[in-house]
Automatic annotation (TrEMBL), chain A:
Subcellular location as annotated: Cell membrane
Lineage, opening ranks: Archaea, Methanobacteriati, Methanobacteriota, Stenosarchaea group, Halobacteria
ABC transmembrane type-1 domain location: 190-378
Entry's Gene Ontology cellular component terms: plasma membrane
Transmembrane intervals: 25-45, 71-89, 109-129, 192-217, 315-335, 355-377
Membrane-topology descriptor: Multi-pass membrane protein
Originating species: Halorubrum tebenquichense DSM 14210
Keyword Endoplasmic reticulum recorded: no
Protein name: Binding-protein-dependent transporters inner membrane component
From TrEMBL, chain B:
Entry keyword annotation includes S-adenosyl-L-methionine: no
Main subcellular location: membrane
InterPro entries according to UniProt: AAA+_ATPase (IPR003593), ABC_Ni/Peptide_Import (IPR050388), ABC_transporter-like_ATP-bd (IPR003439), ABC_transporter-like_CS (IPR017871), Oligopep_ABC_C (IPR013563), P-loop_NTPase (IPR027417)
Name of the protein in its database record: Nickel import system ATP-binding protein NikD
Domain annotation ABC transporter: ranges: 7-257
Compartments where found: Cell membrane
GO molecular function: ABC-type nickel transporter activity; ATP binding; ATP hydrolysis activity
Catalytic reactions of this protein: Ni(2+)(out) + ATP + H2O = Ni(2+)(in) + ADP + phosphate + H(+)
Topology class, membrane: Peripheral membrane protein
EC number: 7.2.2.11
Amino acid sequence: MATESPEQFDQVDWNDLSRSGRFDLSINSIGMLVTALPLALLGVYDWRFVGDRTATFEFVGLDRTLETVDFLFIFTLLLAFWYLVLPLYQNPRRTRYYWKEFKRNRPAVVSLGWLGIVFVGGIVGPLVMNAPQQELLIAYQPPVFTSVVDTTPATCVGEVINGRCHGTWQHPLGTTNAGRDVFTMIVYGMTISMQIAFITTTIVATVGITFGTLSAYAGGWVDEIMMRFTDIILSFPTFLMFLLILYIYGAGLGMFIVVFSLFAWGGTARYVRSKSLSISEEEFIKSSRISGASTYQVIRGHVVPNVASSIITQLTLLIPGFLLYEAQLAFLGIGDSTVPSWGQLIAAGRSDLSFAPWIVLAPGIVLFLTILAFNFLGDALLDALNPEAEAENA
Amino acid sequence: MPSDQLLEVEDLTTTFGTDDGTLTAVDGVDFDVDTGETVCIVGESGSGKTVATESITRIIKTPPGEIEGTVRYKGRDLLAMPESELRDIRGNEIAHIFQNPQEAMNHCYTVGWQITEALQIHQDVSDEEARAKAVDLMDRVGIANASARFDDYPHEFSGGQKQRVMIAMALVGDPDLLIADEPTTALDVTVQAQILRLLDELQEEFDMGVLFVTHDLGVVAEIADRIVVMYAGKVMERGGVLDIFDHPAHPYTQQLLECLPEFGGTTVGGIPGTLPDPHDPPDGCRFAPRCEYAEGACRAGEQPEEIEVSPGQRVSCVHYRPGMDPSVVRNDNFEPVGGDGAADGEGGVSRADD
């Protein structure tokens, strides 16, 4: 379990996690099991007993359906909560220390705030806001505080002054060519972005760390085979692979996430391997072995936690790559058009750029800010978690 | 009486396969440690002391390392033992202390976690029991306010405190044998003295055998019962601490002592020359190339056999062979006992140490 938590590995409370590898589960693992079990049951129920067209929560009268991606997303959220948020609370001293280091980097604090908004919006938004409906009558409404020539929208929701249609708070970021509210769509897009961020990070971290440490510790021909396999993964034309899968199975968001993250862990695995090799030369590894720890205990208790702190930046910087990739594919029209991602929104608005630029600009700016925020965050995390790196910069 | 020793090392040879051929770090070394006694392995850096002690519990990575010989701990051969059985001994019965406490601790964990690690690996104790024991030990090794500091991280401790924590880590499993690899080298002199005193007290309290590795003869004088002098992977001389300091027999031991001003040494700048190439050690005595008394016999064949020069003191030097004149390497009027080892006890000079 420990190797699966996303983003901020180092803040996992390893003190609790890596105790001797026996059956005394920590409160975190118990919580994880207790919460993941109903999810798994629900998943099985949804998969076996509920028809494709029936909503998952039909049995309680809710018209809400969960896709595979949603299940994965909830699972990673649970992981993040039990192994990331809770340890931070359990270990206030360390949390305060990280925060003290982290907040020295102002842009990163702002970035964290922005990502917090995107995160909360992505989780809560779809629950409280209705999905954007198609209303052709109110297409092309301008954002609030702006105006367009009143011939652009079919009917103007706001005031028409001097032949110009003014935006209203009803549609703060305007509407699309189909009359969908852009703000609502951006909020729905936050869910997609967060799903991409969390699930890919979890997959890449799990596979990368497992592969890297195993390779480093196995050594010899096992290491050789594993690293050559990593070379293949690294040089694999993921995009062509994705196109192939797209033509065979169709391009769902889940497929995008799985395909791209399954071909993205090569760099992480390589880095983890080299880091593990250098850490295994450290004196405290010897000290642990001399205390009678088995290889498994050494790897889980000492190697993985030390490697984790140094791959956080790499993982954080992988996320914007995925977000951009999704947007690019959507823009090219080979994304999942049923998913209200920012990329889809941009793609849908590109033909109206000349007279309704907000359809492209609003999600574009949000995407830009999010990617920027992840980059700042990665930088600040590197400084906060690895003081040596900072000392070198100073 | 070899069988009732706590630890007996016989003909221990540790080699490493390298690109330049086989490197012999430890070459047929014997020594033993008894309960309650402190044995010091002395020698300059690179003489194989650390490799020898790490071979005992097979901490050396194999490959590239290869360990041969016998290491009997309480009558059981550690080198023939499967890894899983050996793990039960490591940390539980044989504990190590390292030279650099800074590096021997994982900065991800609280010191409390690290102290209890060995305990929780070996014994089925609850967190509370482990904590109580660790706090108790931290208190015992002289860390003030131990129960509060249990949850501190290594970087919040000073160097001396860290070494105390290291000692607590080693002692948590109630070991019978403590292997201390230069535990005071990274510390300043005042802290050194405190740590040595602490080790001395703890040895008595826990009734451990201590195998102490150091290059610092000043430290040896304070704590050792017996001394094993190593050079280039071979034992040069061994004996009680008083014998060695009083009348060192081997030229190497003499020169080591010469380097110590507080023992009347006059050599400034150390022993001339460097250690021989461990890939291709010289014939005969390993020290011969640097020895001012070396002659033809020193440079041929194997390392000379060990010859008893006084009760318990044995030296590997051709000059003590029967028919040779040991006064060549003696800078006093001391007469060695007969070459066959039959002691005739030359009065005040040959004091038995235990």
